[in-house]
Amino acid sequence: MPGVIMDPKSKNGSHTNHDRDQRPNGVNGGSHTSDKMQDKSEARAEPQQNMTPPSPAAPSLSNGKLADHARRENGGNGGPWDVQAQMDLLPQEIIHMTEGYQPLSKFLQRVVQKTHTELINTLSDLEQMPTPASALNGNSATDDSSQENVQKKMRLMNYATSAHESLTKALVITGWSRKAEDVSKLIDIRLHLEAQKQLYTTAIEAMASNKRALHNFRLPNPDFKTALEALTTGKSSWMPDLGYIKPPPLTAKELLRQMEKLNTLLSMRLNLDDYDKIPPQFKNFTIQSGRATFKVPGEFELDLTVANEDPGSQYWFIDFRFLFRPSSSNMNLGIRNYIESRVNETLFTDGLSGCYKYLHELVLTYKIKEFRRQGDNLARSIWTDTLSVENLNRPISIQYWVGRYSGQPMNGKSSSARPSKSWIILGVHSGKVPGRCPSPKDTSRLFIRWFRDFKEVKDPDIKLDDVDISTESLLKTVIGKHIDHILTSIFEKLLAKPLYASRELEISLHISVDDPADSELKVQLTQEHRLSIKIEPMSGRFVLGPVSKQYSQTEFDLNRRSQDPATDGHIYIERLRSMLLTEDLQVRAISVGWTRVNKPGLSQESMAEIVGKEALPTVWFRRPGWEKDWYLVVTQSMGGEKWHLIKTAMVPHTLKKEVLGVGECIKLPIKSVSPITSYSFLSTLNIFTAGVVSHHINAKTLHARRVQHKSVKGKLAKSIALPSIYAKLSDLIPSKNRLSRTGMSWAKDVIKISFQGIEVIGQKPSEATESAISTSVTQASQSSAPVPQAPSVLIPPKSFNVDERSVLVTEARLIASLPKALLNIKDQVDKDIIFNAETASFAVRLRSKVGDSVIPDLVECLVRVERLVEFIQVLDTHKDTLTCDMVSLGKIVFTYQEVSSVSPLDASDAGIDTATKYSAAVDYSAADNTMALMLEGGNPHLRIADSLATILNGSEGLNGVATLLPLTLPVLRALDTMEDAWSAEELSGKGQVIVHARATDSYLIRYSLFPKSPLAASVSFNVKLRSRNSQPWWHVRRVATARNGEPDALEEDLAPLWALSPCPDWKGMRMSGVARNKSIENLLVKLDETVRRFALSGKNLNSAVSAPPPAQVQAPAPQKQIPTQNPRQQQQQQQQQQHQRWQPASNQGQSQARNPHNPHNREVVEID
């Protein structure tokens, strides 16, 4: 019983014992203060509780023994026994009620809260009420009786009344709570008394029940008197005679007559009297054997009859049978009697219509219960844990695929989706059609509501067989339609994808109406993987085949993570295809040399512009030898695979200064939407991508250099089609396709650049240089120019790192026919260039790292070819004096000798070997297009090598060098001979010769005679190249001295030499001499012999000419081998020891050259 506890400090507002008012007797007989003496404003202190239960042997309070017991308790020393305290103690048998009590403070707090809330609401209502008109006009009349004022007052009065009632109740309860302890005890006593009273009542009822039960066990006393009379006389005198006469039994004819009569009566009533009262469902009846049999197809048969001839009399029940299976054939007698009584009662009240309705509803309920019974049996047998049957009053609910979706999280994220649930409700429909007048033919029927994944399916078109009742068949029908819905939805969503819409991949759907387990969706994921999707009818779980690890994971995801497979089932199929495609692509790509790399930190926005938003995850690959910022990206989607070549670069960004983005993107033109990623395809893709990158980079470089070019469709192999680049040669090379010597074009102004494949390069980890380790995979172009083939090299050990280079071939056609020296260039030196004499064309093979342009190398190579063509033309022009030994794109080697004389003078007297040929090489492989002239050791032209190099890199080029080499060879050889002659021992101290090469066509020969004697003198001779009748002649003359034109002693010795003209190539000019070809060498040797004889003669250079000539001393012949080497020989020997044979030589003996860097200022003088 509820109550209020005054003390709010107690734990639950109640006590656990009844001694709340028990107080100790005070010290030395002191007593406690009464409750009435306490201050009303303070809560009464909680009395000390005695946790010790009272002893069962408590003293009795009767017969005046309490005082004695009290005195004994107090030992005779205390005060009198507190009788009132003892009376306040409740016996242990009385249970203290603690349920329903609440603290008084909580009650008062709630009252205050209620009053405050009502006050706020009242003020809010008053604010919303309209203001009285008097207040608006400024009148403050106290007797304002307007309706607005009255309403506001009524609202205030209602609040005041309600608050007064609440506070009054609080006051009453507060006053009552002061005596709550006494009332609580009274309540406990009252409840105890009621419990005891209930025990008495229960005992009386139990005794009465026992008495009534004993009646069945008592047997009546036998009536011996009546038994004796009945047994002796056959009757009893006290039993009355009713006078009943038993009718005679009917014969067969009478029975037949009665049956025919009943048939007639039934026919007349059903066809005449009650025809309009028969329900449409009872129109199908038969009359036979005195009964009318009404048959409702699929429900029941009812046999009725009549008892009299009155047309208004009721029909009577005879028999009842069910017309559906399974049903009860032998009806229980009790159930039959119940149905009979109810049918007869309904026939009496409602006639045939009411009888039909009653039996129809009975049959419908029976059918529903039969569905329920079969459902329970299925749930307990083969459909365990997958089926749940539940009663919904009369209808039933059958949930199938229980636990198909467990709501597991996907990708580690929590899922708030509830588990999938599908069920059917089998109930009774009234048969009424909305919007149409009721018809007697409208009757109730069984109907099904189908809820698929929490959503009701409108017009499900589920065939319900209520004649042969089978819950399993009904479930198969519903589940079959559910499976049809799921597989059809997945099929339609996949069929809308481009891969299946264009029939690149196959997809087919088979739906079985009879057996849902045979429904199957077949999907071709790739060219090698096919998937079969089925749904197990009982559990609703997906079954993917054939069995594999990848399919098992997708099957798990569909069964555990897909809440609605009809909506998102196709997503898992797409992911499975992407996973299979990625796995096959990665395994095979790595096998053929591709390297799988991670995404290089590109943002999703930059990738979405390329691959699209619907693309599945991308796969990134690279090849060895590619530039680090080039990637092959394969994007997968249901529209097919897209293959892109992407170059990453730093691009500007709105938020940051620069971010890593897509610098260049090239979409590979692969015809197939989803190609078969076989080993051959990936190997061919390597070549194709390298070609596409090379073509793109080369075209971009040509565009940056403003070179006119265009791409023309080409063909590398049957499976690869790459365009070739046709560029304008004159825009590509610095010379504008004009030879510097002739100013004419040396080749047609169009060159072809075509990709020919890739070349595998091996590199040791410890080496920086690369070496070819296998042949190139190039295919020959369809051009007429042959393509250079890469050399075949054995594969090195595994310690080599594999690298790849792209190989491109550039074809060009010359205008003029090729010289013979170019026909065998490939066989001689260079393996990357070949010339075709028939078509006057050449082809050059260029190699570059994939991602690098070959245009700079191509320009350099074309410049070399241009020089090569020009050099060959020059060598062909000077074929009488120069012979080409070796030609390549970077070097040309040739031999030369002096021009043969018309009437050669025998040079054996001078000790000169004129049959020697000298070798020279021109190296033009430098990156800065600088050509270098390389001479072998001992070559006479080492004296003027610097001047020749200047001429070689000047406007005259090799033609100028080729012209000067045979012209200057006799002079330079003679100068070497002169220096060798003056190094003899017998000339020691007599003098020395110093040669100054002022230019290639001007030399100064200075003789220092008697350097250590008072007769020291200096004699100089100039050797210059002059022109006479357009022919080159060397002019030798003595430099004028300071003797005012008077001849000295040396002039006398030189006079015979200046007057000598031994051959057409040597002419004496009285004071000088001219010669050409080999004769200039003889002239200089003779001049040197004359000066040496003069030095040995000891003559004074300053003596008069008339003085008698001294005895002529024979000058020693020039020696080829002498022990002492002159400075020139020592210098040549050092050069040979420090350098290889072919090195650019400089003229260390050249000094005081006259403008050596301007060879065009050579002095040309006509000689008469």
TrEMBL record:
Key word Transcription present: yes
Q: Which keywords appear in this protein's UniProt record, sorted alphabetically?
A: Activator, Nucleus, Transcription, Transcription regulation
Q: Which BP terms from GO are recorded?
A: regulation of transcription by RNA polymerase II
Task: List where Polar residues composition bias occurs.
Answer: 1145-1155
Predominant place of localization: nucleus
* Ranges where the record places region Disordered: 1-83, 1101-1168
One GO cellular component from the entry? Answer: mediator complex
UniProt cross-references to InterPro entries, sorted A to Z: Med14_N, Mediator_Med14
Q: Where is the composition biased (Low complexity)?
A: 1112-1144
Where is this chain compositionally biased, Basic and acidic residues type?
A: 33-45
Q: What does this protein do?
A: Component of the Mediator complex, a coactivator involved in the regulated transcription of nearly all RNA polymerase II-dependent genes. Mediator functions as a bridge to convey information from gene-specific regulatory proteins to the basal RNA polymerase II transcription machinery. Mediator is recruited to promoters by direct interactions with regulatory proteins and serves as a scaffold for the assembly of a functional preinitiation complex with RNA polymerase II and the general transcription factors.
Provide the assembly information: Component of the Mediator complex.
- Record-stated family: Belongs to the Mediator complex subunit 14 family.
Which PANTHER family did the record assign?
MEDIATOR COMPLEX SUBUNIT, MEDIATOR OF RNA POLYMERASE II TRANSCRIPTION SUBUNIT 14
Write the protein's name.
Answer: Mediator of RNA polymerase II transcription subunit 14
